[in-house]
Amino acid sequence: MRHLTYYQAVREALWQALEADPRVFLLGEDIATYGGVYKVTEGLLERFGPDRVIDTPISENAIIGAATGAAIAGMRPIAEIQFADFIASGFDPLVNMTSTIHYRWGQPVPMVLRAPAGATWASAGPFHSQSMEAWFAQIPGLKVVMPATPADAKGLLTAAIRDPNPVIVLEQKYLYRRMTGPVPEGEHVVPIGEAQVAREGRDATIVAWGTMAFKSLQAAEILAAEGIDVEVVDLRSIVPWDRETVLASVAKTGRVAVVYEAHRTAGFGAEVAATIAEEAFQALDAPILRLAGLDTPIPAHPVLEAEYLPDEHKVVEAVRGLVGF
Amino acid sequence: MRHLTYYQAVREALWQALEADPRVFLLGEDIATYGGVYKVTEGLLERFGPDRVIDTPISENAIIGAATGAAIAGMRPIAEIQFADFIASGFDPLVNMTSTIHYRWGQPVPMVLRAPAGATWASAGPFHSQSMEAWFAQIPGLKVVMPATPADAKGLLTAAIRDPNPVIVLEQKYLYRRMTGPVPEGEHVVPIGEAQVAREGRDATIVAWGTMAFKSLQAAEILAAEGIDVEVVDLRSIVPWDRETVLASVAKTGRVAVVYEAHRTAGFGAEVAATIAEEAFQALDAPILRLAGLDTPIPAHPVLEAEYLPDEHKVVEAVRGLVGF
Amino acid sequence: MSLTDEHRRQLYYYMRLSRAVEDAAWALNNQGRMVGRLYTGHGQEAIPVGAAYALEPEDVIAPMYRDMGAHLVRGVDPVEVFAQFMGKRDSSNMGKDSGLHIGDMSRGIVGMISVLPDSLPVALGVALAFKIRKEPRVALTTFGDGSTSTGAFHEAVNMAAVLQVPLVLVCENNGWALSTPNAREYAAANLVDKAVGYGIPGRHVDGNDVEAVHAAVSEAAALARAGGGPTLIECRTMRMRGHSNIDPADYVPPEMLAEWAERDPIHRYRARIEAAGLWDAEREAGLEAELQERIDQAIHQAEAMPEPEPEDVHVGVFAE
Amino acid sequence: MSLTDEHRRQLYYYMRLSRAVEDAAWALNNQGRMVGRLYTGHGQEAIPVGAAYALEPEDVIAPMYRDMGAHLVRGVDPVEVFAQFMGKRDSSNMGKDSGLHIGDMSRGIVGMISVLPDSLPVALGVALAFKIRKEPRVALTTFGDGSTSTGAFHEAVNMAAVLQVPLVLVCENNGWALSTPNAREYAAANLVDKAVGYGIPGRHVDGNDVEAVHAAVSEAAALARAGGGPTLIECRTMRMRGHSNIDPADYVPPEMLAEWAERDPIHRYRARIEAAGLWDAEREAGLEAELQERIDQAIHQAEAMPEPEPEDVHVGVFAE
Ligand SMILES: Cc1ncc(C[n+]2csc(CCOP(=O)(O)OP(=O)(O)O)c2C)c(N)n1
Ligand SMILES: Cc1ncc(C[n+]2csc(CCOP(=O)(O)OP(=O)(O)O)c2C)c(N)n1
Ligand SMILES: [Mg+2]
Ligand SMILES: [Mg+2]
């Protein structure tokens, strides 16, 4: 199969959706003329014109509100927030208006909110590095996906565009240009809510998502060389999340590490761990381990950033402890 | 000791702080002339004047930003957000600016953000009932307290006002006029970060906070009549939270239910449960149980609201199951 | 659209119906027969009625909580209103939300939420959809004076102006945002001065004159439909009751209420259509009886509707 | 304050120093010797220098990322700037944040964050503190044209106007918000038209004329200090480089750059002070040498400072 880089896979999903469905349009800051700060939307203005690829003022609240309005008026808007951190500036419409419309009056809101999220291991600092999936997971009515491969970047975005609900796609900016992989050329849909067993193993389970799934697979290779055989479950979707696949893996291995990049406290990994504690209590041979970002802002200096972030080496160390328990 | 209602205890803390410290002032919507929608700030304008009790336009972002600015300029602002739900409209300054100032350039931000939070069991509906402590717990740099008694309402607010950090006080609007209790007349400080064993017991531990601590104590009485002796730990502070007291209780009882009003998924109870799963694995005789609000918006109709909310009867039922495990 | 005699009688009718429904709801609420509080548009009826009446059926309106009249003009039946207010299972919000948060895109009504003024950016999006599809439709949204202090207002109006979408912005300036008077909400001489900063036309209208509101909105809608972008219309009125039915509003100077009582939009309009020979005591008596009956029946019907069942709470978080 | 000869030479000095520091940083950044990207105020130096120079030491400034000159005027040494840019342990941000996010209340500088324009409501709060304490101090904040589209801007400016706090609002309108030109940011003829809607004085100033900026800010500060509330000053300028050092900015028409190059604030001001007999080639040569040495030394000193240690990450989330 043909290989694409992660950001190219995102662009392909957008391109194909714009081709296939006249209701689809894009809006966001600097996405048209500039092609987006990560050049993900480059070329789309030229192909689809300014009515379907719309540059907006710096107005995250209005971008999210407008996408919501266009969605209920029959369009399939795809809004980009330039960095996921800035969703905080449009937080209210998202969590109070967009997320509750269907529950309150039965009106579907088929919109997508895309945003580059997560750290870069390149000093992007406290306001261009955050992973805030836990905020959205607290809000009923929002779906959330975090693709960890180019194929999933295309497939989950495509699923998001077709979903009748608001879906937040937290694209992993670390992977945009670092990860290349096979991506189906034509229609490619990855169902929202299905985890992927990215690697099978017997000794322990790692549950991870986004960049941490990528790092965990690297860790698994290192561990394999030591004779430790870990299973890596890439969650892919945060809301809804695939409890069955996770619980089945834990039932098999009896040991689990939950690895996430967001701040440890009240991160989504807490939900995963709590669920396992509730549902798989008797299958566990060791305490559930969480490895996560620190409870500090995400610092800029590489020395500090490295200390903040979980990476393959920290995963390896954690899993060694887990297996030795 | 003299008894006060919860909202009176809040007002007394404000009153005494305004008396004691010229740096203290209040700002918010309808807090001055009107005395606040729950009349918590009634009488303060008359006593302290319009320079220290300030009505603002409907501008949650600017209220939070202005409190932050006044704090770094040497004041001790106490901002009110009329309903905690509307913090979403001022989310960005809080989570990105206010919370990171000290970490990034060493400047303390001694401000308090008060807001009536939680459901009312009186049809306040999706936008006047939310409990969003988990959002703030995900943000390093914000302290969060949720008093469950009049004494704590006064003592934690007083501690918050004196704290050199931004502290969010999620006052429990359900308790404002429903709960009366002894409150020390003079200076009364409840240290932030210390849980309270609100009831001692042997058979199981309930960890709860805010209104759910109140309801859990009611449940404990019912359970006691059945011969089930539960310990109720009222967390009081969410950030930082008192892991030691919780873990000690779990070590003693071996069984734990975490009860919270917020949406179940990714609620702060997930953090508590995950921590117990990690730290007290070998002390547990039963799976950690979570009883929480549903993963739906908080509905208005009493029939639906009752279904959404955990209450003393649901706690009783859950604990029966836990003890019978 | 210029108003025929029949139109003018209808404008009067809708204002009367709006007030009758709200008066009945006031009583119901005080009797504990409603879910949640009541926020009325008593004294402001000319604005939602005049504005909604100026729209075409295929247009979309995103009204605020005082806009009973706008709902009625769009075809919402009083039965639906009372069912909604009672949180009935088959009401617009199915008991999940309360108040006048009725939403129904098939009739072009965006359901509001409590957070202010969150329908405004949504209406911008509806208008954007019309623009993209090159449909000759407009979106209209109403909001209070207090709501113009919010960031949501600013971002949405500015973006609407930049994108030149067909949006009509109707501010119901009733002098107060809960207990906060205009002077503590904005420092400009007139709220409509904000239009200058957005580079869009601004109109200042007597909000207690239903025909003036209708004319201003008709003109703004025509401009928007023709690709001329948004207009900000400030309708000056007065909140004649408390913020909600539990607010005694003793912060409002009694003189102010007395002064505005003179300008009641319904009384004024009745005088006007009577002077024009379109209305008389007999018609009035007939209307009175009709409204009475319609309201009584509607309450009856609504009250007979089923309450939500506990299981309903789980339904509908996501669309299938 | 009227400008003496010495003041005028200082204005020139600070603009030159600002550009020299930024030029050096540009080179450092391209060599990978900085943490994070670089956003310069090249071509806009007259605004932060003129504005900061108009303040009293006890005033507070909340600058934006292009305001090197404002920091220098407030007494930040180039060593501190380079240390900050390198993320050194003893820099303002201790390596935890990067860019010109220097904060130091002892010198009246509010540290900005990336989210736009979050210093604006903070500056409002600083001004509010001054007002409450009845101190004759003002807060000043600068922000880009693009930032005026945000809700944060609107809420803060409106509240400042309503509360009549001593705040000076300086918009550095450089024509662009990243790739977005003014015409797609706002629809008004002039950005300063927004002042009308806020009911505050608005001033339109040539942002490439340091004395004009200084005069406008002095006047606004005097008004604010006297209890006259906020003023919005639009300083018209041009962003002469890419948004950051990695943006080639090929969306900017070359003619536009050429036209503005003619109006470079430093070259213009040098001509002006030369014409006034305050400056000459000899002084210029001396300054050149002095700057060169100062910058070289500063970089050296900064580079010798220790990097953060891994454990530092844990320090300082909360104040004790
Ligand atoms: C963002 C937000 N903040 C606060 C409130 C609480 N609140 C509800 S109505 C209201 C006053 C609104 O005033 P205005 O917009 O003038 O409308 P009016 O009630 O006068 O018609 C306030 C402060 C809210 N609903 N949303
Ligand atoms: C809320 C928010 N949205 C988006 C961004 C990304 N961003 C950084 S700078 C910038 C352009 C700012 O333009 P302007 O305010 O005119 O300042 P300039 O860079 O032109 O000096 C954008 C969109 C941001 N920092 N904050
Ligand atoms: Mg009003
Ligand atoms: Mg700019």
Primary descriptors:
heterotetramer, A: alpha/beta, Rossmann fold, 12 helices, 20% strand, globular, C: 320 residues, alpha/beta, 11 helices, 7 strands, 43% helix, binds thiamine diphosphate, binds magnesium ion
Please tell me about this protein's structure.
The complex is a heterotetramer, with 2 copies of chain A (325 residues) and 2 copies of chain C (320 residues). Chain A is α/β, with parallel strands linked by helices. Chain A is 37% helix and 20% strand. Chain A has 12 helices and 14 strands. In chain A, the strands form 3 sheets. In chain A, strands 3-2-4-5-7-6-12 form a 7-stranded mixed beta sheet, with helices on both faces. In chain A, strands 9-11-10-13-14 form a 5-stranded mixed beta sheet, sandwiched between helices. A two-stranded antiparallel sheet of chain A has the order 1-8. With 320 residues, chain C is an alpha/beta fold. Helices cover 43% and strands 10% of the residues of chain C. Chain C has helices at residues 5-30, 46-53, 68-73, 78-85, 119-132, 151-163, 194-198, 210-225, 254-261, 265-275, 281-304; strands at 60-62, 139-144, 167-173, 176-177, 180-181, 202-206, 231-236. A 5-stranded parallel beta sheet of chain C has the order 1-2-3-7-6, with helices on both faces. Chain C is globular, with a radius of gyration of 19 Å. The termini of chain C are far apart. The model of chain C has no long low-confidence stretch (mean pLDDT 98). Classes of the chains: A alpha/beta (325), C alpha/beta (320). The B-C interface holds B 29-30, 33-34, 37, 55-61, 85-86, 88-89, 123-128, 294-297, 299-304, 306-308 and C 35-36, 87, 93, 95-99, 113-116, 146-147, 149-152, 177-180, 184-186, 251, 307-314, 317. The structure holds thiamine diphosphate (TPP) (2 copies) and magnesium ion (2 copies). One magnesium ion binds at residues 144-146, 174, 176-177, 239 of chain D.
